[in-house]
Amino acid sequence: MKKPDGTLEKWKFEGFPPNMLLRNGWKKDATLQAGMKVTIFGWQARDGSNLVHSRQITFEDGHTVVYGPPAGNGGGRATQ
Amino acid sequence: MKQPFALVAAGIAALSLAGPPLAAQQKTDFKIPRTADGKPDFNGVWTSGGAERLGDLGGGPPRFTSAPDLPRPEPLPYQPWAEAERQKYLDRRGIDDPIGRCMMPGVPRTTGMPMPIQFVQAPRQFIILYEAYHAYRVIPFDAAHPPDVEPSFMGDSVAHWDGDTLVVDVVGFNTQTWISGVGSVHTDRLHVVERYRFVDSQTVVMEATVEDPGALTRPWKQYFTLRLAPGERIREYECLENNEDLLRFETILKTDPRYQQK
Q1: Selected residues 1-60 of chain A with any CB under 8 Å from a CB in chain B
Q2: Are B178 and B109 in contact (CB under 8 A)?
Q3: pLDDT tens sequence across A37-51
């Protein structure tokens, strides 16, 4: 990922396991390939590391794939 | 690429839709699929209600909708000590969620996971295969709970028919699961009765009645929608592989001042 000052930084994006990525249309070795420019929406890890809980990925042609589960604290609706 | 749904999406399928009681709006103009012995036929792969919480980002039609007009879930009616426990876990923002450590979510919480569920129905037993957490339940019909039940994550289940409703009685839980959401603790006196019934030919509603005289002041109900998913199959879900949360949570617990006094 390119920082505002132009330098590059490594980030890690965590998402669904393969079973759920498949159901969202994600194909191994095809959907995401080295060199692609993508935009990922997600949340950075609370410990401040370059690790992201990913929610959605947008490809250069504009199409999106759900990448990971929504935000929340696991509480569902019943007890919050 | 693993995401064990720890802090994020322990998909609880209970609905927030207000509506009339179930009995007031049951559909009757459908045929319940039946097995050769005349019982309702639950065989198949079902999309579990937790799928609803995955949401839709693209603005398209929802991929999963719950059965309409299910009763609105109420807060868990906790005894003061249990509510205090729950608050403690909420203050820690779910970091202690057992499923973040890849423990099986228990009953009824596993039904609320967003992965499919397969029912394998036979005259003498009913088998539930959950894609989530490799959980399974082999449930005998018309049997008593064995006398040597050991406390476990998924408990001990026995089933019987109440007309066209499949009733599953579950006891024998350990205290390492949460009932529904962050901090929803229980004791080993937890007792769950699940009632599965068709609300149309492709949809089952499961009503879970949760009792725990050690933690709750009265029984509590939660509803789950299951939709038949033709063409779907159970795939593999391995929570533990590359589960960085294990390390991350421990690091946070040790280094973040917010958690030091806990």
Answers
A1: 14-22, 45-47, 51, 53, 55-56
A2: yes
A3: 999 999 998 778 899
pLDDT, position B24? 47
Which has the higher per-residue pLDDT, B173 or B56? B173
Beta bridge partners of A57: A40, A65
Contact B184 A79 (CB under 8 A): yes
- Residue A2 or B125, more confident: B125
pLDDT tens per residue across span B78-109: 999 999 999 999 888 788 889 988 999 999 99
Q: Provide the shortest C-alpha distance from residue B39 to chain A (in Å).
A: 32
Look at B11 and A76 and tell me if their CB atoms are within 8 Å. Answer: yes
* Cβ contact A19–B53 (<8 Å): no
Could you identify the residue written with the tokens 């009953």? B107
Q: Which residues of B touch A77 (CB under 8 A)?
A: 12, 14-16, 73
SS3 labels along A16-63:
CCHHHHHHCCCCCCCCCCCCCCCEEEEEECCCCCCEEEEEEEECCCCC
Residue A74 has pLDDT above 80, yes or no: no
Does A3 have pLDDT greater than 50?
A: yes
pLDDT the model gives residue B108:
95
Per-residue CA distances from B14 to A23, B54, B112, B132 (Å): 23, 14, 8, 18
For chain A, the farthest-separated pair of C-alpha atoms sits apart, in whole angstroms, at 46
Test the A interface: residue of B2, B7, B133 with most A CBs within 10 Å = B7
Q: What is the ipTM of this complex?
A: 0.77
| Residues B224 and B48: beta-carbon distance below 8 Å | yes
How far are the Cα atoms of A21, B42, B58, B112, B250 from residue B62, in angstroms, in the given order?
17, 24, 10, 17, 37
Chain B environment of A56 (Cβ under 8 Å): 57
**What Rg do the C-alpha atoms of chain B give, in angstroms?**
19
